Amino acid sequence: MDSSDIPRKKIAVIGGGLVGSLNACFLAKRNFQVDVYEARQDVRMATFARGRSINLALSYRGRQALKAIGLEDQIVSQGIPMRARMIHSLLGRKSTIPYGTKSQYILSISRENLNKHLLTAVEKYPNVKVYFGHRLLKCSPEDGLITVLGSDKVPKDITCDLIVGCDGAHSTVRTHLMKKPHFDYSQQYIPHGYVELTIPPKNGENKSFTCTLFMPFEEFEKLLTRSNVLDFFHKYFPDSIPLIGEQALAQDFFLLPPQPMISVKCSSFHFKSHCVLMGDAAHAIVPFFGQGMNAGFEDCLVFDELMDKFNNDLSICLPEFSRVRIPDDHAISELSMYNYIEMRAHVNSPLFLFQKNIERLLHAIMPSTFIPLYTMVSFSRIRYHEALLQWYWQKKVVKKGLFFFGTLIAIGSTYLLIRSMPPRPLDYLRRPWDWVANFQNTTCFPANPLESLEQTLKVISWG
Amino acid sequence: MDSSDIPRKKIAVIGGGLVGSLNACFLAKRNFQVDVYEARQDVRMATFARGRSINLALSYRGRQALKAIGLEDQIVSQGIPMRARMIHSLLGRKSTIPYGTKSQYILSISRENLNKHLLTAVEKYPNVKVYFGHRLLKCSPEDGLITVLGSDKVPKDITCDLIVGCDGAHSTVRTHLMKKPHFDYSQQYIPHGYVELTIPPKNGENKSFTCTLFMPFEEFEKLLTRSNVLDFFHKYFPDSIPLIGEQALAQDFFLLPPQPMISVKCSSFHFKSHCVLMGDAAHAIVPFFGQGMNAGFEDCLVFDELMDKFNNDLSICLPEFSRVRIPDDHAISELSMYNYIEMRAHVNSPLFLFQKNIERLLHAIMPSTFIPLYTMVSFSRIRYHEALLQWYWQKKVVKKGLFFFGTLIAIGSTYLLIRSMPPRPLDYLRRPWDWVANFQNTTCFPANPLESLEQTLKVISWG
């Protein structure tokens, strides 16, 4: 993109984590002067601070964003494809639930490694500078002013044209936007926490597993000693013990306290043309759809697309970003929370597996009309909120369909029963078949129901 | 209270507004060393910074708190009793809705004046120091550390045993608590804003009126010029114009932009034994029940009562304060939001006035059993959440009662109709009267349904 005609504006990206460093690449490509302020030391030098999940799932949306800055292949080559969820029964039986079709997979990615690659990519742009060990003390978006504290411990005031808050779930930039009128906000912790454990490599190979135990905090509080932990695992996850190792398990379990999970929602992602939030700073979500990073990366991509569309005009792009992106980020937040409930309650139920199989079957028959929710979310860029609406519609259709086929079978049986009886007029049985014909001619199965929200909404209100 | 046996702990009260200065008095009485940090200059010297509502309604809860520090009479003597709401019709007709009985009234109080009195009261305690012009930069509750910035512009670190956040709806203390795990939080702006106008004194008297116009922001945005404003008032509030004066109205209307109103909820008011939030910092509410200040003052009183009960043990009092007070502050938040809707939609409806009259009648008949919501909230210290539950119950009883009397009248008419016909056995008509007797003997009207939440809940689930 040739943007030499655009005056070089100064942009401060707060946070050099995954979303911050990716965003810096996007903005650097547009020839802005980009300064990234990261509170921690350079992750490429320092030992990695544990706490947040070390393992992430990269799917389509995240890959598309990486592709746009030319990093997709490099990152994908270092990921491990994951094609299915493995369910371990208490008796040691294993069953898989594929994430998508045979050719579809999500990628297991190390947070640390991805961050290192992104930072290296950022620093290749001559118009970017990354300041590590620089903590944001405060910001005044209306004045384009930020105050950062570096290693010299002297607060420094810096002016800029745009502040981009990519500083995570506990964003400092956001706390300043929260003081602006009409900025609605909510944060909610779920009752579960998580602990990460490692299955070490076997037979001299370099392949480890990261295991995450999600459990209510009140249950974690009952596991106080090493023997509590071993008893617990013997009871609920017996087949994991030989893989992790009793000693490692009892030790690793207490390395870190169980980590909380927060869900954050904002009614706006921007302030005038001066400040914008992306990633967890704008919409931290619970991790049960594996979309936290992907949604954050797609934020950057959507913003980049808007900058293309509106010729880098921040006074249009920022409000547009809020308008366009908030329904989507709120939708993935809802879906992640739904998955939190679903994974907890239904993943082992036969009805859930039956539904998954019906979804797969319908998708195979009508690949562009009926798309499983997981596929829309993880293997497409269908807007999250459209995926949510489409999913509601599909659930309704499946329910109606099951009811319809149930009725059909009942009528069929009656018909056969009547056939086996002496002949008599069957006029009254014809109506249901008319209805079938009707059903197929309606707009219930439009060629591409995802074309527009309006259409989807119409179908839903019609259904 | 003699507390000379208690080691003198150091308490930092953040905010020297209404709740902060009242709280400092309560804490000073307990012989703590109290330092109050207020970002603004001394309101007794500086010109008052406009912005927040200048007029407040003091009712029973606030008065009880002032009484506990010996200030009630002094403050009350300077307030103006308000006994009823005046409704002005478009045609100039006026009707009143009393707030309570003839002897009950709330008091109109000037925020500035009240704050001055409270600050003067605070400074009479030798163990209190108020630091004006000191802004809280940050706090680390777990270390008992606050950083403040005074007029010398050099950040100062101060240690203390307890941080009391009384720093208002946009509390800085709260932003630090929000980073603690399991701290759920929400803030929501309502679509309405307000503008304050003044009716000047007449005939050389010293009696002015403060008028507040509440209106959706989108309506405010339509009033751009002085003539827009005058047209608007001529159309909707014609009788206010001669009182305010056309010129003053057109001028004052644009003095300040319409002010937003926020509703804030927290899932906890404290952090360990190190930090506690009170007043708007803990629960900013919309002003439509006139309880913002009263709820904040009652916070201080409840905390003081807990300190009595648990012998100043902060490690018990702080969690107890959250446990006891959160249901109440959430209840008054809900009630204020309900009143926002009610005042907007129903205050002019005949049904609303009819309900108010029924409530007053029932209260006159059964003063301890049936108490109008406004009376429970403004003229008692019935816990807010119990008032809410009691109110639900009362509404249900009234609804049932109206239905019952309606049925009774229908049956009575039928009875009279039948009487006027040739005589026949009337056995089947006796049952309803049995039912009346039954009704009066049930626990539906317990002697004092407010005694405990459990009882109230039982009655409700029974009803």
Write up what this structure looks like.
The structure is a homodimer of 463-residue chains. Chain A is an alpha/beta fold. The first copy, chain A, has 3 domains: 10-184 and 267-344, FAD/NAD(P)-binding domain (3-Layer(bba) Sandwich); 189-260, no CATH class; 350-462, no CATH class. Chain A is 44% helix and 20% strand. Chain A has helices spanning 18-29, 60-68, 72-76, 111-123, 172-177, 217-220, 226-236, 241-244, 246-252, 280-283, 292-309, 314-346, 350-365, 373-378, 384-419, 431-441, 453-462; strands at 10-14, 33-38, 55-58, 80-82, 84-88, 94-98, 106-110, 128-132, 135-140, 145-149, 155-159, 162-165, 185-199, 209-216, 259-266, 270-271, 275-277. Chain A has a 6-stranded mixed sheet. In chain A, strands 3-7-4 form a 3-stranded antiparallel sheet. In chain A, β5 (84-88) and β6 form a beta hairpin. The longest helix of chain A has 36 residues, at 384-419. Chain A is globular. The interface between A and B is medium-sized, with 16 and 16 residues. Chains A, B: One of its GO terms (cellular component) is mitochondrial outer membrane. Chains A, B: This is LOW QUALITY PROTEIN: kynurenine 3-monooxygenase. Chains A, B: One of its GO terms (molecular function) is kynurenine 3-monooxygenase activity. Chains A, B: Residues 10-178 form the FAD-binding domain. Chains A, B: Its cofactor is FAD.
